[in-house]
Structures are given as structure tokens and as C-alpha cells.
Amino acid sequence: MPKINPAFAEAIDEILKRHELSYRGASYRTGVNHTTILAMTKGYIPGKGIIVDFAVGLKENVNDLMEAAGYDRIPTEYVCDVTADQVREELLEYLVDAKRLKPEDIEQIRKELEEK
Question: Would you list the domain boundaries of the chain?
Fold first, then answer.
């Protein structure tokens, strides 16, 4: 018999309302099947991987959703606080700055890195 948790159903409903998403819209953004999302709004608890996919796809806190589902939190050493968008932005800024570097600047950076 599947696990049912009304608090989890509430959390899913609140997320969908906040993002103004239908089940299919949430499915498109998360990769989680729309019928699974419908079941989640009724309190059915999916596997941990589906919860992670759902939370990450909507940029929600994974551990809050894991707790709402009745699972243990993922240890923080396995959780990254930096999003892919933030990494991409920093990388682009770095590349723009790198174009301005002179060869002697690059050599200095290389030496500093080798010392570490």
C-alpha cells in the first residue's frame, strides 16, 4: 500500500500555486511525469529521486521537500548551495576578464596556483 502524507500534499500544492503551474507545466520543468505530480498532490510519496528532480527543477529546497515527504534530510556535504546559473554567470565573467589578461599576468597566476 502506498504511503500517503497530507503535509506532503500541501507542500506540493503550495509549490505549484506559487509557480502558477499545472501538472503538465511542472512536468515540463522538472522531468517528473504529470500523473506522478497529480499523485503527489494527493499525498502519495514517490521515491527520493523523484522528489529531488521535482525540487531542483522548480528551484525549491530539496531538504524541505524531503522532510515533508517523511524522508531524512540529505546530508549537507552532498548538497550544493550554488546553482548552475550562478556557476555559468561566474564563468562568463571570468572569461571576459581572462580576455583582458596580459601574458605576464597569466604567468603570475600560473605560479601562484602551483604554489598552492
Answer: 6-77, 84-115
